[in-house]
Amino acid sequence: MGSLLSRLGLECGRKAVKEEERHLRANDRELNLSYKYSDNAIKTSKYNIFTFLPLNLFEQFQRLANAYFLFLLCLQSIPEVSSLPWYTTVVPLVLVLSMTMAKDGSDDMNRHRCDKQVNNRQVEVLVEGELQSEKWMDVQVGDIVKLENNQFVTADLLLLSSSEPLNLVYIETAELDGETNLKVKQALTVTGKLEDSVEKLANFNGEVRCEPPNNRLDKFTGTLTLKGETYSLDNERILLRGCTLRNTQWCFGLVIFGGPDTKLMQNCGRTTFKRTSIDRLMNVLVLSIFGFLMIMCLILAIGNGIWEYQEGSKFAAFLPKGVNAPFSAFLTFWSYVIILNTVVPISLYVSVEIIRLGNSFYINWDRKMYYPKNDTPAEARTTTLNEELGQIKYIFSDKTGTLTQNVMTFNKCSINGKAYGELLDFSGQRVEINEKTEKVDFSWNNLADPKFCFHDNSLVEVVREGNPEVQAFFRLLSLCHTVMPEEKKEGELYYQAQSPDEGALVTAARNFGFVFRSRTPESITVVEMGELVTYELLAVLDFNNVRKRMSVIVRSPEGKLTLYCKGADTIIFERLNPSCSNLTEVTTLHLNEFAGEGLRTLALAYKDIDPEYMEDWKLRHHVANTAMDEREEKLDALYEEIEKGLLLLGSTAVEDKLQDGVPQTIEQLSKADIKIWVLTGDKQETAENIGYSCNMLREEMNEVFIVSANTSEEVRKELQTARRKMTPDGTEEPTVKKSRSGLFCLQKTETVADEPVNGEYAMVINGHSLAFALEKDMEIELLRTACMCQTVICCRVTPLQKAQVVELVKKYKQAVTLAIGDGANDVSMIKAAHIGVGISGQEGMQAVLSSDYSFAQFRYLQRLLLVHGRWSYLRMCKFLRYFFYKNFTFTFVHFWYGFFCGFSAQTVFDEWFITLFNLVYTALPVLSLSLFDQDVNDWWSFQYPQLYTPGQLNQYFSKRAFVYTVLHSGYSSLVLFFIPWAAMYDTVRDDGKEIVDYQSFALLAQTCLLIAVSIQLGLDTHYWTAMNQFFLWGSLSVYFAVIFTMYSNGMFLTLTSSFPFIGTARNSLNQPNVWLTMLLTSVLCVLPVVAYRFLRILLWPTINDKVRYKVRQDKVLPPTPRRVQARRTSTRRSGYAFSHAQGYGDLVTSGKFLRRTPKSRPALFSQTDSPLAQTQPQFYRTISEREEPPLSP
């Protein structure tokens, strides 16, 4: 029974036991299955074929309105209570349930399809001594699987062996962290001996004890016990699901975690049902409306009881059961509940779903958000959050792959005091470099990389002329690195770089004639200007985060010993020979220029070494390198000793290429008063660098606070110091406003008030400090300080910390948040935010699958928010205000009529008009308003991002706006009831034949109502289209056609009881006083609205009013100005190779990385559609130094 229920997707009531430690044995399925670990199948769907209908209906009837209309339907089945036909409720209810069910079913089918695709992937598994192809879903914990090059990692695996030397494998972690540069993992030596022998692998019976499933991507703790020996396991031995095997022919791994237990799925976070702030407000308003409805029904029921008591006795003789006033009042109460239910019509929810669906299609169809390079359109993956896009206050963004392309390009350099990389025209002015600018011709170099792009021909000229300083510069770049080369064909070189920075620098040296060709543990072979030169490699002084530099010591063929060093400029300058002081000053100026443009800079230096000193140093190095105690400290001391008295060669400037339009997008969003926080796993220097590149950090800011303390008290002190600098006169205690929200005000909320700040500030905080700052007793201090800053950058943060930061802002700011990222490490952040946006592209699709919206480039975010989001919010608010206006007006007319019909629950309008009012007569006009209206077009929306701020402040629809709408409806209903009533009271036709009756009054009242609400719709419409005109006039035409048809003799004779208003239309609408009454009521309804809007625009214009006035003034759009990237001088410079990792110097000198057998493997960088590979005709444009107007998107 339990298995049956589990297949149906239902819980059996068993409480899951928390796993404390995982224990498994290789090749022993029986033992491993006894622990009941999860298999490798994943499930992201909600329903199956058996649970869909009951579960979906259960979820839908949890919505208060749906349950309410089900209750109304039950009431209408009682003849004594029902005053309206059953179909007035059944038809719209079934329509709403069916539409929502179809949408939910479609979404879940897509999830099923994705799950099925992943679960049915094939992988080779070792079963009973043979490799068999199995589906991913059938793989179990403890199985040994074989992966081949370019395959996805099936589950979380312990790496056993590989085809590479030293049992290394190269993996791409784009699905996990968005980075496309390769990472290296290494198997234990004891398991590496298994190689690819199926027999040895089948006999492998190692036991693993490790941590239970968790979401820490960068940490793993466990042990492997084999033949009585215990070996330590860490993260370097683990291949995580979601990674891709690259440049490795094969590898074998032992399954540790499967399916939902893998770190990838653990980081997916809990899926929450996201609702917009308007949805939450609507729930509160609907509850209030129910209360208001009950009050109106109670008043009318009491009136009925009084009337029956005073007047009903006169009719007692004609009634079979006499008069029972209390019972009559009770029945009347429920009758009026049915009649007045139009204050919350179910068609409201139908219309809301249609509007959201339509606005989602606009996003999907927007060609300006389509990325042709990889054929990726924007996609609204949910239809329920569109209007929330117009209310965003905080954006949380990943860096790598989101703001940047994760592509490094060699842009500029400074050699011996001269800068290269800029172009000047004949007058000596700088020339802007763009895609049309002529590129340097490297055809003279047969080994040049065709994708490399450079524009300054003068650098090539000095290299080819044999300038010794320039050649030494590029010789250093070709020798001082840990890059591993691969030559598939003669002259076809591919570089495998741990750091994209190193790859860019070695590629630059290659194109300028110093081609790194091959290496052994003892030598480096370089082709220097066409000549093959082999250098003896004596030592590699490796990079680490403290040294921030690396050096190599080589012996040239002539026997000359040279140390080449590259690193952070501040570190290198401290170690220069005093004779370099003049060159240092000039190079510093160039570095400031490069850093001012946001480039990542390195300084290069060298020195010649005495052979005798080198022999002594090598002996001491060997002793230190084999020491068991304080090995690192001894090596660092030796490195410090030899890296002194260097001679400066120059500096490099590498661009960590931002995605197109990132600075402009951030500038636009900042103008819209949206705060942007960057949450990245990268190092602090990298994050700062990108901050300056995309103008989030600026030199003109008052101060950029760095929070990097390692204890709780120090972090608190740094946060408080920053806050006091920003607000010297501020209070020490935060201003916390406590309130209640939600249905029945059961939800307690605390809001930390914003504090005014003079000036612009930014804050950079690292992951260690953030862990302390997110503790319960310090989180408000963090929030106060961070929210005072214009920009916040959190670096070295874990996926969990990203989600915690988002939750902190949601908890205490009551603001709408958006998270945008591209990797699996961003999934929990994307799910935690009100809106999640995934960047789709080469970095993987994990974030996209968990997102609400997706597109290919960060720059499309401004169009999503400033255009689609703002329009969606504006349209939804207009729709709700108008919908409540027309329905409250409709209902109030019934309420007033109750006082003139003896509180008998008689309807003032024809039953058919009541049924068709919301479904036919007013449905399409209000939908056209909600789908096509816009206050200004997209061009003006970009020109004035301040138009976005009213949405952040909930100015268009709030409780106050709702109250104003109800008061407006009350006034209109008084006009629409009493003017027709007074005009028709005791009147006769012009020919004196007939006295005006109830049916004539009902026709006049409903016609006046429809005309008045149609005029109000016209006043609310800012953007008229052919569809608006057609639906508005068409609906009025349909109304008159319907009443003449339904009130005809033929319909009366066909169904007498259903069409009692025979001849009413033709008898009433040919009277002049009827049309004059319609005109009078329309004018009286509209006059206050027109007067109020005129005075408001004249005396208190909003930003929308001002911009719309300017639009009318500027009928012709001005030409779009061109933007020139602003130059900025800076005293800060970027550090060295921030994405580089420690430890590869030892690897390249060990000899173990060399291949046992030559194998072909794919290129590391195999893209051929890169912009770097494109050639364009030469195009120059002189740059003006004066500031130009901002670029309009």
UniProtKB/TrEMBL annotation:
GO terms for biological process: Golgi organization; phospholipid translocation. One of its GO terms (molecular function) is ATP binding. Belongs to the cation transport ATPase (P-type) (TC 3.A.3) family. Type IV subfamily. Its EC number is 7.6.2.1. This is Phospholipid-transporting ATPase. Mg(2+) binds at residues 398, 400, 822, 826. It is an enzyme of class 7 (translocase). Its main location: membrane. It catalyses: ATP + H2O + phospholipidSide 1 = ADP + phosphate + phospholipidSide 2. Residues 1160-1193 are annotated as: Disordered. One of its GO terms (cellular component) is trans-Golgi network. CDD domains: P-type_ATPase_APLT_Dnf-like. It is found in: Endomembrane system; Membrane. Keywords: ATP-binding, Lipid transport, Magnesium, Membrane, Metal-binding, Nucleotide-binding, Translocase, Transmembrane, Transmembrane helix, Transport. ATP binds at residues 398-400, 502, 543, 566, 600, 680-682, 796, 802, 825-826. It comes from the Eukaryota. InterPro entries: ATPase_P-typ_cyto_dom_N, ATPase_P-typ_P_site, ATPase_P-typ_TM_dom_sf, ATPase_P-typ_transduc_dom_A_sf, HAD-like_sf, HAD_sf, P-type_ATPase_IV, P-type_ATPase_N. Residues 1165-1181 have a biased composition (Polar residues). Residues 25-90 form the P-type ATPase N-terminal domain. It is a multi-pass membrane protein. The gene is LOC112219386. Residues 848-1102 form the P-type ATPase C-terminal domain. The chain crosses the membrane at residues 284-307, 327-350, 879-900, 912-932, 961-981, 1001-1019, 1031-1054, 1074-1095. SUPFAM superfamilies: Calcium ATPase, transduction domain A, Calcium ATPase, transmembrane domain M, HAD-like, Metal cation-transporting ATPase, ATP-binding domain N.
